[in-house]
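DM from R.C. (forwarded with permission)

"hey, sorry to bug you on a friday — could you get me a structure for this? deadline for the figure draft is monday and I only need the backbone to look sensible"
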Amino acid sequence: MTNDLTRLSAADLAAHLVSGEVSSVEATQAHLDRIGDVDTAVHAFLHVSTEDALATARDIDSRRAAGEDLHPLAGVPIAVKDVVVTKGLPTTAGSKILKDWIPPYDATLVERIRAAGLPILGKTNMDEFAMGSSTEHSAYGNTHNPWDLDRIPGGSGGGSAAAVAAYEAPLAIGTDTGGSIRQPGAVTGTVGVKPTYGGVSRYGLIAMASSLDQAGPVTRTVLDSALLHELIGGHDPRDSTSINEDLPLLVDAARQGAIGDLRGLRVGVVSELSGEGYQEGVSARFAESLDLLRSLGAEIIEVSCPHFKYALGAYYLIMPSEASSNLAKFDGMRFGLRVEPEDGPITAERVMSATRGQGFGDEVKRRIILGTYALSAGYYDAYYGSAQKVRTLIQRDFDAAFAQADVLVSPTAPTTAFKFGEKLDDPLAMYLNDVATIPANLAGVPGMSLPNGLSDDGLPVGFQILAPAKADDRLYRVGAALEAALENTWGGPLLAKAPELEVAR
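My reply, with the result:
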């Protein structure tokens, strides 16, 4: 029964909980057992909160038995990326500089998760301060892709994606600054959604780039993502960038989409997000998915977003500039790591230098240096200012494209998962993994990646859907329709084709 429980979607598991066939304690313990069995190999988790999760599960079982009206996902376990603060649980952002830090408060989305009664299984591994595309930049070791343990699970949220793909958690929280939910989704065969900027509160997220960061769901099905998105989304007065409007009806959109009728929908294929540089199998699966959308009644058109080719360059000026500012708080003075110089006077400047020198990894240092340079006197207008102008042009490209099409589509990532170390010494090659996902963050529009098949190397490929700001429901309608058509073609979920992980005994 344990294996059966871990293989259920969150929606199906929730239905079993409501019917009384399964208790939350049983479901939570099954996932904790699964973590114990496979996480030595996968290393998706940095911290497993066994007692906390089981205490929540017992509470939900008691309240359900008493006849309380509970949230639809009450009792369904969840994992949380370690960049999201959790009261009483370690939060490190994958960095030595926050080793053993226990936050005194919860992020808004964690408050909502706790209030709904979802047991938190633990905190997932990530590239340090969400800076990376492979989870190789974590200070606590690599996370491995469940499809092939010698390959990366994507980044920065590789831990959340790997946990869901390895059946260690039915739901997880990720964050997406330039593709850190969607790109791991593509290479692990999971569903990842970046909501509209401001659609999910950023209060309690350890910021990398405040104008780009966005938390969102990581799941195995489109419906599960809709259920989790509706739970964590909505206005938060503690976040000045939070949208003060109700969310669209995301779950309804997913259920409607699963019916498979997309007549009247215009799907725009972004010409700049395909072609040279995309793996042959990625392009082939993308073309097949377009044919499936046509078969469901969608009209497929080609759209051009000419300034997308400048998105990577603009992003790698804006993001490091904001990161340089946001990470200034980690100074060895107030919380986290403190390193004092071995000799000489102990001054604030020398403590700060020693702490940051030892506490930050190479990739974080690289981006801080780049961002500080871009913001420095004499260079601000030439670099950061110019990048913001490019950002405006990209937003205008989206406006023009959405005047022609209801949604835009592309491959999520140019390639399937690569092997550890393959791109670690070539930052530009690593950054190019996010070439298709970055434009959505620069414009603040929502995006989804869902698995759409295997490449010729037997590894999963992702299909990206983008919608206008605050039209996240379109992602779920189109995503659910394509998912249903694909699973009908495959005879079941893509993850069922993944090799079984060796269980630790």
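R.C.: lifesaver. The first helix runs from residue 2 to 7.
me: no worries. The first strand starts at residue 45 and ends at 48.
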